[in-house]
Write a structure and sequence with these properties.
There is one protein chain. The protein has a single domain (1-239), classed as BEACH domain (Neurobeachin, Chain: A, domain 1, Orthogonal Bundle), CATH 1.10.1540.10. The protein has helices spanning 2-6, 12-22, 69-80, 106-112, 119-126, 141-150, 199-210, 213-226, 234-238. By secondary structure, it is mainly α. Helix 4 (106-112) crosses helix 5. It contains nine helices and no strands. This is NBEL1 protein. GO terms for molecular function: protein kinase binding. Residues 1-244 form the BEACH domain. It holds the Pfam family Beach.
């Protein structure tokens, strides 16, 4: 598979799906759901220029430190986490870590897929029988990216659906997802980047970005973090990639 990918006989999308499968990830287990990278950082331009390297996320860094400003906080957390009052580790048994949550978990999958069954029902069950408050819903792709940049504790990567399934971005079932506190805006379809004219257009351009020259040249750096030698040990510490 690796050789086929290097020879460009299979797409980046197919290679990532196969890697996830080999790593034991599956659509049948929300706790081990396939994980895909955030690949863009430009969610505000009118047009998306895939020939400009500046529109892409730095794939060599974990999502928690793609924003350079977060690196200092993350490093300090690794050194001082065990000193925090609220961190329960009286015996000092837990290894040090940079991030207290994970780049892929069941709640994150439900978060992204809340508009589509069976994930809607699973989300409601998780939230004790109702939808979570509107401000915490997945309501906008630009806002989700901005939140990642502002908050080193939010380290969610993407799911494969961002590259092939436009329906998850639409509230086709008309669920009442509440309204945002500040703007009073109702949460309905997911707000798209300006460069996407419809959910289909977003998926088409996002998939094109995944198969772009830039991502093809750098995808192995992200794979090292998630599936490769930077998952644990000294290489993970150095890459600020140690998870609880």
């Amino acid at each position: 598979v690796f050789q086929k990918w290097v020879n460009r006989e299979i797409s980046n999308f197919d290679y990532l799906i196969q890697l996830n499968t080999m790593a034991g990830r599956t659509y049948n287990d929300l706790a081990q759901y396939p994980v895909f990278p955030w690949i863009l950082r430009d969610y505000t331009s009118e047009e998306l220029d895939l020939n400009n390297p500046a529109v892409f996320r730095d794939l060599s860094k974990p999502i928690g430190v793609v924003n350079e400003k977060n690196a200092k906080t993350v490093k300090e957390k690794y050194v001082f986490e065990h000193l925090y009052e609220n961190f329960e580790d009286p015996l000092g048994m837990i290894d040090k870590f940079h991030y207290g949550t994970h780049y892929s978990n069941a709640a994150g999958v439900m978060h992204y897929l809340i508009r589509v069954e069976p994930f809607t029902t699973l989300h409601i069950q998780l939230q004790s029988g109702r939808f979570d408050c509107a401000d915490r819903q997945f309501h906008s792709i630009p806002a989700t990216w901005q939140a990642l940049m502002d908050n080193p504790n939010d380290v969610k990567e993407l799911i494969p659906e961002f590259f092939y399934f436009p329906e998850f971005l639409e509230n086709q079932n008309g669920f009442n997802l509440g309204q945002l506190q500040m703007s009073k805006e109702l949460v309905n379809d997911v707000v798209l980047p300006k460069w996407a004219h419809s959910p289909e257009d977003f998926i088409y351009k996002h998939r094109k970005a995944l198969e772009s020259e830039y991502v093809s040249a750098h995808l192995h750096e992200w794979i090292d973090l998630i599936f490769g030698y930077k998952q644990r040990g000294p290489a993970a510490v150095e890459a600020l990639n140690v998870f609880y």
